[in-house]
């Protein structure tokens, strides 16, 4: 049986949706915090297990009868590493055969500006040293986040981000979920690291040009100085800690932390992932 954590989240939902095409619902379990949010999953025949990454007793219970676990990275950035360790230790105690983890394609822990991303590398290291069989999915930045990055008034104001000409091989969340499901359904973890990215990398200049072509409107990309961007965010009332996180995230893009291109997702899907044009057409309804 395969346990999907974060099962009512966006990525977890996509993994389950595609996993149901590969294995019987009776072979899928879902770890959720709120049973009311999992009624649809339950109606499909999926085994619902209640708990969260901080509840050690619930995690022990959730692992009973499980062969594989998909550990979807937690969103509590400050406590994420300990939460991940809780899941892995519960899996190990229950004799789970394989733990898969959704990590990130960030290149170099040593040169990251956004240090909150360290927890992905640290989780990978802990999992590799745990004695568990593992599969690590290093997921690139979701193409689905581009509307948030560029803002809802992108066709009026253009794109204003200090990302320079940093490149990202964006991929759709739905296709990452499909790729993960295909790997989980195929067999053992195999102690493998997968880099799930699009087939081509793009700058925000490319994003602006693509949006312009699709919409028929002028869309310019401006890469301001970091200080000017921070001042704008603070002017919108964002607290300093949030300004630092956002700016650090975008600076890492500028510095090429997300620029790796791999064929792993293409191989897992059996086709090329959606291009920037195809993805933006759907995301912006163009």
From TrEMBL:
Domain NmrA-like stretches: 2-251
Highest rank taxon of the organism: Bacteria
Parts of the chain that traverse the membrane: none
Pfam family, one: NmrA
InterPro entries associated with the record: NAD(P)-bd_dom_sf, NmrA-like, NmrA-type_oxidoreductase
Protein name: NAD(P)-dependent oxidoreductase
Originating species: Persicitalea jodogahamensis
Upper lineage: Bacteria, Pseudomonadati, Bacteroidota, Cytophagia, Cytophagales
Gene name of the record: ytfG
């Amino acid at each position: 049986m395969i346990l999907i954590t974060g099962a009512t989240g966006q990525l977890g939902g996509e993994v389950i949706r595609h996993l149901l095409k590969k294995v019987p619902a009776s072979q899928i379990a879902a770890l959720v915090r709120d049973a009311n949010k999992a009624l649809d999953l339950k109606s499909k025949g999926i085994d619902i297990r209640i708990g969260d990454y901080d509840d050690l007793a619930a995690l022990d219970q959730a692992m009973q009868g499980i062969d594989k676990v998909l550990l979807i990275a937690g969103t509590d950035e400050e406590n994420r590493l300990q939460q991940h360790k809780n899941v892995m230790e519960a899996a190990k105690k229950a004799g789970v055969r394989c733990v898969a983890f959704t990590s990130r394609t960030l290149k170099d822990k040593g040169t990251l500006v956004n240090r909150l991303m360290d927890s992905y590398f640290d989780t990978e290291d802990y999992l590799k040293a745990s004695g568990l069989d593992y599969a690590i999915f290093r997921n690139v930045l979701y193409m689905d986040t581009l509307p948030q990055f560029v803002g809802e008034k992108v066709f009026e104001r253009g794109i204003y981000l200090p990302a320079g000409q940093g490149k990202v091989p964006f991929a759709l969340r739905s296709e990452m979920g499909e790729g993960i499901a295909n790997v989980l359904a195929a067999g053992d973890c195999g102690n493998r690291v997968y880099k799930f990215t699009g087939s081509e990398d793009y700058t925000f200049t490319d994003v602006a040009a693509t949006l312009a072509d699709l919409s028929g409107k002028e869309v310019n990309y401006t890469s301001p100085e970091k200080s000017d961007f921070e001042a704008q965010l603070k002017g919108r009332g964002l607290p300093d800690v949030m300004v630092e996180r956002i700016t650090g995230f975008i600076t890492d893009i500028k510095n090429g932390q997300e620029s790796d291109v791999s064929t792993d997702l293409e191989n897992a899907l059996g086709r090329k992932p959606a291009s920037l044009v195809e993805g933006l057409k759907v995301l912006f309804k163009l």
